[in-house]
Design brief:
The structure is a single chain. This protein is of the alpha/beta class. The chain has one domain: TIM Barrel (Alpha-Beta Barrel), CATH 3.20.20. It is 34% helix and 16% strand. The protein has eight helices and nine strands. The strands form two sheets. Strands 2-3-4-5-6 form a five-stranded parallel sheet. Strands 1-9-8-7 form a four-stranded parallel sheet, covered by helices on one side. Helix 3 runs parallel beside helix 4 and helix 7 packs across helix 8.
Length: 263
Amino acid sequence: MDIGNVRVGTCGFSYDEWKGAFYPNDLPNHEMLRYYSLVFSFVELDSTWYRMPSPGQLERMAALTPSDFRISLKVHRSLTHEIDAQWQARAAEFRTAVAALASTGRLGCVLVQLPYRFSYTPDNRTYLANLLATLADYPRVVEFRNSAWYQERVFDTLRERKIGLVTVDRPDLPGLPPESVIITSDICYYRLHGRNADLWWSGDATSRYEYCYSTDELKDRARLVRGMSRQAKILFVAFNNHARGNAPKNAAQLQSILADQAG
């Protein structure tokens, strides 16, 4: 399916609840990534946020996918959500794993996703600059959950350092980033979290993202994606509404819509 420089995929792939909804019911878990890579051209590994990845693990995963498949790595939580004095050692460990994936030709980019509580302060600005500098050998994108970071000073710095700003689709709630497309590097990254406003603050990692985009919503998103793709060398679109298999369903629908619009 030719959709130009746009790669559509999901945040994570190894969900048992996707069996029957996306994967065949009898598909062994170790075959999930191979099957997934026949449908989508990229995946965002959220497992690397929960567990520090090893070089061998990522090399084995890469070997299961086609040569033109791309994998983005979400930075481990010890570098974004649970920062302590040992962060530099953790960053070095993570960087070693990234290097192994990059050597396979499958690396898409490194995603630094920061929590809402990571506010715009001098200390946080310094920390983030240092973290991004340690990952400077690889394509980087950053997602802010706090709208205080959305200012020209930040955008200019990201452009100078060739770091992409993640565009987010999210509920319309105070304090969250505005719905805007701000291009700061050759890589565009679009994460769709759903629009579940009622459970955004009170829900867990599943219920917060339990949302299924309608066809009309996806057609509207497709127009936005087309516009973004004209301003970037590559655009990654990652659906994070993983509950009930909504992410692969919506990702496949968006792929079809984009292909139809290109035809």
